[in-house]
Every structure is written in C-alpha cells, then in structure tokens.
Design brief:
The protein is mainly β and about 150 residues long. Helices cover about 15% and strands about 50% of the residues.
Length: about 150
C-alpha cells in the first residue's frame, strides 16, 4: 500500500504472567495497553492458554479515538474511497475455545467523511455492498451522524 501506513504505539505496555510451556494447561494472564498516534488508545486484558492441544483465549478491551484517516491508503486501494475524517471507538470481546473464535465488536464511528476516488456507482465498495456507498453510509448514520454497529 502506498503510502505506507505508519502508526506509533507509545508507550507500549505488554504484561504476560504465568506463561509456561512446561504447564500447557495453565492459563496466562495478558494485559496490553498503549496509545496510538496522538489521541488513540488500545487496552486489552484477558487470559490465554497457548501451549495446550487447542488454543484457548479470552480477551476484552477498548479502542478509543482511533484516527480513521490513518487507514485511508487501505480504503483507497481496496474500496476506491479515501477516508478524510473520523474516529473509531470500540468495545471488544474475543474468545477462542478449541480453535473456534467467538467475537463481539461494538463499534462507534464518529464524524466519518469519505471521498470517492471514482464514480460512486462504479467503486469497489459499491460493488461489495450492492448499493452506492453514500446511500449505505446514510442508512447507518444516526441523528448525530455517528455509526454504531455490532460486528461479530
């Protein structure tokens, strides 16, 4: 992707306790806490059991004020849209049991503004959705122009 996407995660704090390959049935606790670029933040906390016969994991956390224009090169390349403005807040709950993922992601996208790089009727995003992207975004927005969705 050009230009390359570069995000700064500082200070990155990762804490893993009780990680022991010799005790594959013992759960390890994990905490990840970092700031992303100037205003965003990510915090995940939970447990995992990576060395057993099957993976077990339970992580929950928050993403706060992630600056969506940072992802604009990906949106441009894959969807034919540039992200001009917006930020993401998310509540995450991920569980893996016997290699089966069960995830709930509550997303809130605020002040999203996008710009089509080609005729809206011919964009990749319009092809994927089956309707114009501008129409789809209008249907998702609430009275305050926010988009709140739950994604499995």
């Amino acid at each position: 992707v050009s230009p390359a996407v570069r995000l700064e995660a500082r200070p990155l704090q990762l804490q893993v306790e009780h990680l022991d390959q010799a005790a594959p049935d013992k759960q390890s606790s994990v905490i990840l806490d970092t700031e992303i670029d100037q205003y965003g933040a990510v915090r995940l906390e939970g447990t995992l059991r990576p060395f057993g016969e099957s993976l077990h994991m339970a992580l929950a956390g928050e993403i706060d004020a992630f600056h969506l224009p940072s992802l604009s090169p990906y949106a441009a390349r894959h969807l034919d849209y540039r992200i001009m403005q917006g930020h993401l807040d998310a509540s995450l709950d991920w569980r893996v049991d016997n290699w089966q993922l069960d995830a709930v992601n509550d997303l809130k996208i605020a002040k999203l503004q996008v710009e089509s790089l080609k005729d809206d009727r011919k964009s990749r995003l319009t092809e994927i959705l089956g309707l114009r992207a501008s129409t789809a975004l209008s249907l998702l927005r609430d009275d305050e122009e926010n988009i709140e969705i739950e994604v499995p």
